[in-house]
Design a protein that fits this description.
The complex is a heterodimer of chains A (about 240) and B (about 170).
Chain A lengths: L4 E12 L2 E12 L3 E5 L6 H8 L7 E6 L2 E2 L5 H11 E4 L11 H11 L4 H14 L15 H13 L5 E5 L7 H18 L2 E5 L3 H4 L4 E6 L2 E4 L18
Parallel strand pairs in A: 3-8, 3-9, 6-7, 7-8
Antiparallel strand pairs in A: 1-2, 1-4, 4-5, 9-10
Helix pairs in contact in A: 3-4, 3-5, 5-6
Chain B lengths: L2 H11 L2 E2 H13 L6 H13 L3 E3 L12 E4 L1 H12 L9 H13 L4 H25 L2 H25 L2 H8 L2
Antiparallel strand pairs in B: 1-3, 2-3
Helix pairs in contact in B: 1-2, 1-3, 1-4, 1-5, 2-3, 5-6, 6-7
The chains are: A alpha/beta (about 240), B mainly alpha (about 170).
Chain lengths: ~240, ~170
């Protein structure tokens, strides 16, 4: 695997019962790169994201993060990596409804051992960046879908993750709210040199990424290498 | 939509008379706008003049021009180049993309790879427009959005078509 790679999969196979989801998926992502993972429903793109994030372990193949095998770590070690090095944004914010927006953003810091006052102060800084100044004390039920997703983005980015995993982050939003989330996400990621693995079926969302790969039938293909070789035409049809 | 290249593509299947080419063109690509005979024969003459096709001897029979045309190596190279090069990503491409997919399938060429190449070109253009939106004013944003929505529609059509290539291939080979 190449030197600049921060995270990657090599020949990953993963089945659920008798149903194969990944059949030898390989992907290398560089530090700071924003990669869109596209593909039809059921192609295995979310399974690939879950394997890369250490949420699932592959049946075969390897997952690498920061020069180390992720798939051979214990569950406890993997959950520490997820907490300290990764951030997550899912389709619907999944904010904790009992907590305020600010407490939700502070959550990864609190779980990582930051003291409460410092964690909340750091969380508060994010509300200006995501255009929600003054709304930190609201609970998730008092936020619109787009606002809640911006809070979820801040929660995903607050501990300066090396990799942000975003699974259909705009899937439940209208187009304008979705664009705002994508714009904030890509700006924040570029400022912090955070790598983003973005699963989406929406080409307008994928267009925020640096490049895209397609998952088809459980394997990964890169569009940029798709140019057909020239000179393959059969010549027997030509008149002489 | 390039009539000369489409006719050349049809010629690559087998040497044909102008009449056959017009019939097949109208069937597959005409969509209610039949190609005039005059344009078919003028195009064939130009293709022969440019060395892309060769006209056989005049045959006896009805009709104005009973020559059978055959594609040359130079003609095949033109078809190959046209099919494999992505069209510039811009709105209202559907007739070109459709013609390329159908011809590629007729000629047993890798339509799926051509679609992927086109897809990559479309996404690259969408990235450029998205970057423009990030630094532009509202007018730039609205103009970029117009382009983005059209390109997205093309992409969805490509995905839909890619998922049905087997069925379409059966249809064009019938």
């Amino acid at each position: 695997m190449s030197g600049g790679m921060i995270i990657g999969a090599r020949d990953v196979v993963k089945s659920f019962g008798q149903t194969p989801a990944l059949r030898g998926a390989s992907l290398e992502v560089q530090q700071g790169e924003i990669v869109a993972v596209m593909g039809p429903s059921g192609s295995g793109k979310s399974t690939l994201l879950h394997c890369l994030a250490g949420i699932l372990t592959p049946d075969e193949g390897e997952v690498w993060f920061a020069g180390q095998r992720l798939d051979t770590l214990t569950e406890t070690q993997r959950s520490e990596v997820r907490r300290d090095k990764f951030g997550f944004v899912f389709q619907s914010g999944q904010l904790v409804p009992e907590l305020t927006a600010e407490e939700n953003v502070a959550l990864p810091l609190l779980l990582g051992g930051t003291r409460r006052a410092a964690a909340l102060a750091q969380a508060r800084d994010w509300f200006g960046r995501i255009g929600l100044d003054g709304l930190g004390n609201r609970r998730s039920g008092e936020l619109s879908g787009g606002q809640a997703q911006r809070v979820a983005l801040a929660r995903g980015m607050v501990n300066g993750p090396q990799v942000l995993f975003a699974d259909e982050p705009t899937g439940s939003l209208d187009s304008v709210s979705g664009e705002l989330v994508m714009s904030l996400m890509t700006r924040a990621a570029r400022e912090q040199n955070t790598t983003v693995i973005l699963v989406t079926h929406d080409a307008r969302v994928a267009a925020y990424a640096d490049r895209e790969v397609i998952v088809r039938d459980g394997t990964v293909s890169s569009l940029t290498g798709a140019a057909p070789s020239a000179g393959a035409a059969p010549s027997s049809r030509a008149a002489r | 939509m390039s009539v000369p290249l489409t006719l050349l593509g049809l010629l690559e299947r087998e040497p044909s008379h102008g009449y056959d080419l017009k019939r097949d063109y109208d069937t597959w690509f005409g969509r209610g706008k039949p190609l005039p005979y005059g344009q078919v024969y003028a195009t064939l003459s130009r293709l022969a003049r440019d060395g892309k096709a060769i006209a056989g001897p005049a045959e006896h029979g009805e009709g104005p021009d009973r020559k059978r045309y055959a594609i040359t190596e130079a003609g095949i190279a033109d078809v190959e180049h046209w099919l494999s090069e992505p069209a510039p990503p811009e709105p209202h491409l559907q007739t070109v993309l459709f013609a390329k997919v159908v011809l590629a399938l007729m000629l047993d060429r890798p339509a799926d790879r051509y679609l992927d190449t086109q897809r990559a070109a479309h996404l690259q253009r969408m990235r450029e427009l998205t970057a423009l939106k990030e630094r532009g004013d509202l007018m730039d944003i609205l103009l970029a959005d117009h382009g983005l929505y059209h390109l997205e529609a093309d992409l969805r059509w490509m995905d839909h078509t890619a998922a049905r290539l087997d069925m379409l291939a059966q249809e064009v080979h019938q």
